[in-house]
Design brief:
The longest helix is centred in the middle third of the chain and has 38 residues. The protein has one domain. Helix 1 runs antiparallel to helix 2, helix 2 packs antiparallel against helix 3 and helix 3 crosses helix 4. The protein is mainly alpha-helical and about 140 residues long. It is elongated. Helix content is about 70%, strand content about 0%. It has 4 helices and no strands. Keywords: Membrane, Transmembrane, Transmembrane helix. This is G_PROTEIN_RECEP_F1_2 domain-containing protein. It comes from Macrostomum lignano.
Length: about 140
Amino acid sequence: MNGTNNSGVTPRLVFYEDLDTPLQACRQDSESVSCLIANINGAVTGCLLPAVMVVGLLGNSLVAYLTLCRVKPLTKQNCFYGCIAVVDGVTLVVQGVLNGFLNKGLPWLSNGRFGLVMITVSDLGCKVRERPVGLRLTVA
């Protein structure tokens, strides 16, 4: 196959070269679908995601504290629930902050002036970046 799908159309892949790329569609045509998608994505990752992360971290911290420190005796089930809460908290921070807020939300809030672009150029970098998600799925 030479990069075409069943209909014979070559799929177009979109890669963001810099933080300003998603916002350029809005500068050219503010009524376009690309601009609408960029605004929805930016609003969700810039405004809603931090609130969800704070609530999630508070809930996971409370569950981890109660099941691992306060409940006596420490049973296998309580240990399991506490460990799931800890791993879920780590996943929230890594995925929410690095892959969500800093990559998409902060550039939208700052109009493309601030943000973080994480370019994974090696197999090790890819494994380190995606490890929390795999660990969470393995534990859960």
